[in-house]
Each structure stands twice: as C-alpha cells, then as structure tokens.
C-alpha cells in the first residue's frame, strides 16, 4: 500500500484551515460543521463526549482513533442516525441537531456505512438512480402517471451513467448490486452518495475490506471530491491513507477529541500515541496492541522516506 | 369415479369470485411482503374490515353501495395506520407480531356477543347484497358454456371481482415501474441506506402498508359477495393461505399472486373432490369423510413446503435473485 504514495506523487494539501494553535476544538477559518457539547451514553458507558469540534469546509478531514473511541457513534449522531443525550451542532450555518437522518441527507450531508449497504436486489443503475434527490416520481400520486416524471428520469439516468463511467462500473449497470465485489460495492456506495449532489460527504471506513488493487482508485475518487468543491469527513484505520489524503486529522479516544492538527504533526502528538498505545506504553511491555505499534513504526519509516525524497 | 365432474368443478374455480378475492388480498400482500419487506401476518384482518365495513354500512346505516365500499376502504386505512404508527419505526419482526395479534383482536371483536345487533356475532351478517345486485346491468337468465354456466348475479360478481383484480394488478405494476417503487424496493433491501439518501422511509412504509391493506379490504368485499359474512372465515389460516398463494406465484411479482390464486383454488378444489370421492368408493378404507375434508389442508401445507424448497422464487419470480439471498 505504501507504494501508492510514491507512484502518484503527493496530492495537494489544503492548509491554513485553523485559527490559532492546533488543539482539540480549535477554531476553523471556515467551518462546515460546528458541534458543541455532544454526549451520548449507552448505559454506564460514555461513547461520545465532545466539547467543541469544527470541521473545515472544502478540505478532507480524517477522524481517527483506536477501536471503541466513538468515531462511528459520532458519525451516527452527526447524520441523525442516533440521538445524543445532550449537544447541538450546525451544518452550513443552520442547526441540524435532533433532525431525522433523511432530512440531514436532504440538506446535503450524505454518508456511507462501515458495512457497505449496497441494495443487493436492485440493479447497479437503480442503486444510482435512488440517490438522486427530490424526484417527482417518488411521490405516490405522481408515480402512477409516468408523463410527470419520464423526462426527469431520463436526466437522472444520464447523470447516473456518467458517474458510473467515472467509477468504472458502467459495464455492470444492469447487474444486481449483490453480484459486485466488496471493493466495487464501496465504489457504488460512494457514487450513489454523489448522485444526491452533496456538499459534505461522510465516509465511514471507506477502505475497510477493499482489495489493495482498488485502494488507489478509491483514494483518487476521494481526492476528486475535494477538487470538485465537496467537503469530506472520513473515519479510517489505515494510517497511510490518512496521511496521504487528509488535510486535517481529528483524533478521538474514549469518546473525547484528544488531538487535532495536520496529519504529520498530529501523529507525533503524545496524546495520540497515548491514545493508541496507552499512557504507560514505555513502562509496561505486558500486553501491547502490536497492530498499533506496527502502524506507528511504519509511519515513522514513511516519514524517514519522505525526508530522503 | 366421475372424473368429468371433478375437472369441471376444478375449472370453475379459475374464474370464481373467491379466487379473485384471494388474488386481490395476495396482491396486497405482495406489496407488503414482496416489494417492501413488511412482514404482515394480519392480511385476514384487513379482509375482515373490508367485508364488515361493507356489510355493516349497508345493513346498519343503509348506505348506498359506493358509501359501503368507501367504509370498508376507510376501515382498512385506519387499521393500517393504527398498526403502522407504533411499529414501522421498529425492526421488521415487530410488525409481524403486532399484525398477527391485531387481526385476531379484530376477529374476536366481531365474534363477541356484545356487538351482536351490529355484527351478528358468530352468526355473521347477510342480506347486504340487494343494492349491489340492483346495479347489475346483465338481464336475468343463465349464460356461459362448458363448466362456466351461471346466472346474472354470479356473472356480475365475477366481472366486478376480476375487474378489480385487473385494476389492482395494473396499479401495482405501474407503481413498481416508477421511482416510487424503486424507493420501496430499496427499503426492502436496506432501509438505513435509503434513509441516508434522504428518503423518508417511515412515510414510504406507511404508504405501502395502506395500499396493500386497501387491496386486502377490496378482496374481503369480493369474498362476501357470493356468501355471507362469518367471522370464522377470517382466522389466521386465511393469512397463511394467502402467503401460500404469494409464494407459489412469486412474492415480488404482479402476475404471481393472480396466477398463484388460480392454481391454489383449482388444485384445492380438485384434491378435495378427489379425496372425498375416493373415500366414498372405498379407495381409502382407513379414512372417514370428515378426515377426508381435512386432508386437503394437509396437502396445501405439503405443497407450500415443496415450493419453498424446490422453487423458492415462485412461478414468476426471478431465478437470478435467489443467487444472492442472504
């Protein structure tokens, strides 16, 4: 996977996103999401407890953290799939706290899922068409009379095929989505989300279970979103990917935001190392999360490589 | 054994109003179960409300046919709303539990003696057909050929019944070729994904529950035109017969429920005729006549099992879909 970094050349990173020193809850120059005091408990467990968080507009922000840090829960809260105990947040300047998921999506904040949700027994093309917003033919009364929506349907189909071509799924358009591979389903889910012409795309682990051969193409598509003026917020475990494409990184641990900043700086932050390795990682070698160590070691190696270049 | 009579009795079922009634209810269930993925186990309740709505409006309130028809439809819509509002936000299995219980509650309400003057309790209602028969444009007499010779009223019931089936079939076909149907099928596959795309899933599920329920109520009204309204006709087994029809024809198809209903009734009539006569002439010496009457339902159960095992997609279902069943 590390080969992808060198081959394509580093993508252009957005800078100057924050105002003041990078720290948890730092103010952003142009935030698209501003969240305040969000808490969500499951019984005795506080899954999310975020005091203040701003997501910069027009940039790619990564939300990272060890398992159980509350990343997906925060995602669910921000998209209306779950309700917080307390907290308020705004999207594009207007409050969307407590609004149901479908209304959040209609405002231009669209998400994908950790476990891909391709609609298996719909064709790939139908999956795409479903993504288009405010279709006339989706009202029950007008659905019966095709002349109300035939023209719109043709336009949607054209746009869907255009997107499918971009995602190299056009050859599959008449197949059931269930027949796609795991990586192709991720692509389809992302393409389907784009059909709704969102302003903020939220990707929950876009790389999970994706064949390395498809990784580069997925990365390029995510970078494309930024070039087209969309904001991206994604959850990811793959540190290479985070460092490669993210302009800003938010680190969560035990429900809180423990660090924020530029991907290179944030990885060196002691709070982040603590979050991944535990605060006594240098004292006790008893049971370490070897996966995390490897990840951090590899990152250190990468840094060394980049310095050489 | 009189084979000709057996076959002619079975052939009559092809166009019988009961077949049409079951087809209507099965189309409703196809919308619920086949297209939307709603596990409605209370279709008998919707049929019952249609039947009683029609009969009570005619007998107690002395309303004209169109108002009686509307009463049955409104009753089923209200029933759908009562069932849907608390359960459609929950997981699919809750709707199954609530519908099966609600259909039984409805049946017991119509059976109880408390409302006897209106509902006729266990004896049910009759004598509501006058106004409907008066609308009949067919002059008095018997018509038809072969096994299908009926009087003017019987033809009128059949024409109205099958016209309604055709209309319901067309509406369903139209709906599921439209973007609305695409949303509905998306909900069947994964409602969270559809929600994430900005569709009001709850509202769509409610629409589906209401439409399927109204078709069930129409089926209930056709069902009582050739007979009386009797509460014991609407037991849970009725819902399961309709499920059998649906699985036989193909759950997510429009023609499936219609052809499934025809095959179901033709086979049922043939089996019961055959077994009854076989017992009469001593082919099945271990069986009494009463037992023979029950045997056909055992055969229905057997047939459902065989369909589900060997042709799970039904007659009109798409084989390709099965390759991906989770």
Overview in brief:
Chain A is an alpha/beta fold and about 300 residues long. Chain A contains twelve helices and twelve strands.
Structure commentary:
The complex is a heterodimer of chains A (309) and B (326). Chain A has 309 residues and is of the alpha/beta class. Chain A folds into 2 domains: 228 residues, Rossmann fold (3-Layer(aba) Sandwich), CATH 3.40.50; 61 residues, no CATH class. In chain A, 38% of the residues lie in helices and 21% in strands. In chain A, the strands form 3 sheets. In chain A, strands 8-9-10-5-11-12 form a 6-stranded mixed sheet, with helices on both faces. In chain A, α4 runs parallel beside α7. Chain A is globular, with a radius of gyration of 20 Å. The two termini of chain A are 18 Å apart. The N and C termini of chain B lie far apart (48 Å). In chain B, β1 and β2 form a beta hairpin. Chain B has a single domain, classed as ABC transporter involved in vitamin B12 uptake, BtuC (Orthogonal Bundle). Chain B has 15 helices and 2 strands. With 326 residues, chain B is an all-alpha fold. Chain B has a two-stranded antiparallel ribbon with strand order 1-2.
């Amino acid at each position: 996977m590390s080969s992808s970094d060198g081959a394509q050349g580093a993508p252009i990173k957005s800078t100057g996103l924050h105002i003041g020193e990078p720290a948890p809850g730092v103010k952003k120059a142009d935030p698209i999401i501003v969240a305040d005091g969000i808490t969500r408990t499951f019984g005795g467990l506080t899954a999310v407890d975020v005091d203040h968080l701003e997501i910069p507009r027009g940039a790619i922000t990564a939300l990272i953290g060890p398992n159980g840090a509350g990343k997906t829960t925060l995602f669910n809260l921000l998209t209306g799939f779950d309700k917080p105990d307390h907290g308020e947040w705004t999207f594009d300047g207007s409050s969307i706290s407590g609004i149901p998921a479908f209304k959040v999506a209609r405002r231009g904040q669209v998400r994908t899922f950790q476990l891909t949700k391709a609609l298996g027994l719909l064709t790939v093309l139908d999956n795409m068409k479903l993504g288009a917003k405010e279709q006339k033919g989706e009202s029950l009364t007008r659905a019966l009379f095709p002349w109300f929506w035939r023209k719109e349907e043709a336009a949607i189909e054209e746009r869907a095929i255009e997107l499918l071509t971009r995602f190299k799924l056009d050859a599959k358009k008449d197949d059931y989505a269930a027949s796609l591979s795991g990586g192709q389903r991720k692509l389809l889910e992302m393409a389907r989300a784009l059909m709704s012409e969102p302003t903020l795309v939220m990707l929950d682990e876009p790389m999970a279970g994706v064949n390395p051969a498809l990784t580069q193409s997925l990365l390029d598509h995510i970078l494309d979103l930024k070039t087209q003026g969309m904001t991206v917020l994604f959850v990811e475990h793959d540190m290479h990917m985070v460092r490669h494409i993210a302009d800003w990184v938010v680190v969560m641990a035990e429900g809180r935001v423990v660090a924020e900043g530029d991907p290179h700086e944030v990885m060196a932050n002691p709070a982040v190392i603590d979050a991944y390795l535990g605060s006594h990682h240098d004292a006790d070698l008893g049971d370490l999360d070897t996966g995390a160590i490897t990840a951090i070691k590899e990152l250190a190696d990468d840094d060394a490589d980049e310095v050489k270049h | 054994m009189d084979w000709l009579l057996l076959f002619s009795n079975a052939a009559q079922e092809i166009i019988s109003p009961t077949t049409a009634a079951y087809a209507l209810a099965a189309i409703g269930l196809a919308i619920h179960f086949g297209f939307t993925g709603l596990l409605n186990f209370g279709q008998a309740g919707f049929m019952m409300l249609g039947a009683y709505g029609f009969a009570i409006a005619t007998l107690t309130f002395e309303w004209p046919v169109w108002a009686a028809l509307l009463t049955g439809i409104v009753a089923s819509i209200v029933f759908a709303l009562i069932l849907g509002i608390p359960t459609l936000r929950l997981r699919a299995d809750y709707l199954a539990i609530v519908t099966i219980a609600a259909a039984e509650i409805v049946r017991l309400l119509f059976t109880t003696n408390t409302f006897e003057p209106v509902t006729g309790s266990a004896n049910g209602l009759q004598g509501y057909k006058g106004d409907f028969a008066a609308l009949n444009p067919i002059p008095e007499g018997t018509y038809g050929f072969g096994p299908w010779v009926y009087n003017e009223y019987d033809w009128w019931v059949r024409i109205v019944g099958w016209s309604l089936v055709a209309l319901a079939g067309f509406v369903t076909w139209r709906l599921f070729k439209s973007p609305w149907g695409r949303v509905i099928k998306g909900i069947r596959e994964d409602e969270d994904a559809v929600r994430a795309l900005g569709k009001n899933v709850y509202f769509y599920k409610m629409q589906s529950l209401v439409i399927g329920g109204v078709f069930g109520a129409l089926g209930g009204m056709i069902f009582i035109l050739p007979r009386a309204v009797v509460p014991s006709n609407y037991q849970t087994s009725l819902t399961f017969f309709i499920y059998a029809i649906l699985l036989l024809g193909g759950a997510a198809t429009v023609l499936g429920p219609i052809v499934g209903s025809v095959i179901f009734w033709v086979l049922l009539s043939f089996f019961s005729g055959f077994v009854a006569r076989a017992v009469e002439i001593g082919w099945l010496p271990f069986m009494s006549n009463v037992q023979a009457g029950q045997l056909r339902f055992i055969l229905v159960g057997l047939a459902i099992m065989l369909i589900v095992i060997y042709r799970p997609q039904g007659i009109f279902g798409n084989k390709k879909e099965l390759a991906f069943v989770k």
